[in-house]
Amino acid sequence: MPREITSNLIGDDTIKRLKKFKILKNLTLDQLRTLLGTGETAYHKRIAKLVRYAPREPVIREGDFDSWIFWVVQGEFAVMKNNVLITVFTEPGEVFGEMSSMGEDSRSASVIARKEGICVSIDMSILDTLTDSTVKDKIRSGIYQLKSERLNETTAKLVAERQRMLEQQKDLLIEQLKLMEKEDRLKKWEAELQLREQALNQGNGR
What we know:
By secondary structure, this protein is an alpha+beta fold.
């Protein structure tokens, strides 16, 4: 099971670190404190968690419904869809789980710790309880920007893969043409040899 290191991350040192993370970097320190709450309720105390995961332990399960976003602190986290590896997050501050955190869609992929790792996780349902529209807008803007970046990266990868396949097809076509030319030359040589053999046979028969 994941082991929670602390249930309350609302310390100045931690908030300064969180401010460097994607999605959160546009927030001021005060806005981050607003996002994470002040710890006066049990819910606010658990809005943000620092969790340690064992090797091969799931962080997100495909098909689940929840509103948590995760930031890598250390370790390697593999994104799997239908048991196929999609990508791996290894850099501190990299974020995952944002795709379904703001809507009603279920998790589209699973995330597994490849080795022991630590994540910061924040429940984005807190946005529904915030009165500060600026914080809401910045968070939503950060998530949409990240989604756009991921979409652009995916599109670029697909374009690059398509280009690679076209290059491979071109190379195969060139090789096929070369083979056809070789076959044509061989057929011509065979025909010439047959003519020579016929001519020799006719000469020997005289």
